Amino acid sequence: MPMDSTRWNAWPRTPDLKGGLVMYNSITVGQVLRVKGHGFHAVGPEATAFDALEIMAEKNVGALLVIERGRLIGVFSERDYARKVILKGKSSKNTTVRDLMSSPPISIGTGASLRDCMVLMTENHIRHLPVIESGTLLGVVSIGDVVNTIISEQETAIQELENYIAGNEYTNEVMTS
Prior knowledge:
alpha+beta
C-alpha cells in the first residue's frame, strides 16, 4: 500500500546539531505498523520450500513468518531459499521450511525507533523484522516499509521547508491571530 505523507505530519521532529531533522529517532515501529497495517503471511514449519515459495509469489512478499502451535519460531525468506536450497542442490519439493528458516527469529517491539529497526536489520543482514509486544506477534516491518517511511517523512519535511521559505507558515499565523 502506498504511503500517504499526510499521515506522518504529526510526528515530533527534533533538530540535530547540524540543523537537520532527527526523524529516525522519533518515528516508532508501532507508528510504521499502524500506517502499513498489522497483517502478515505465515507458513507452518512442515510445509515444503516449494509451497512456501508459491505463497510468497502469490502474496508478492519476500518472506514468511514460520508459526508452530501459535508461536513464531522462524522466518523463511528468499535469501534462505537461495542459499540453502539452490546453492546446495536440494529439492524445493522435498525440503521443509523448518530445514531452511532462520531461527530463532530476530524481532523488535513497537516502541523501538525507526533507527533501532534499521540498525537491527543492518547488523543482522535481514530485510524482515517480526514485531512482537508482550509475547504477541503484531506484524512485520520490512526494509521496504522503512524506506517508504523515510521517503514519506522527507517529502513532508521538504514541503514544510518550502512553505516556510514561501512565507506560508508566517501568513497563516498572522491570519489566525
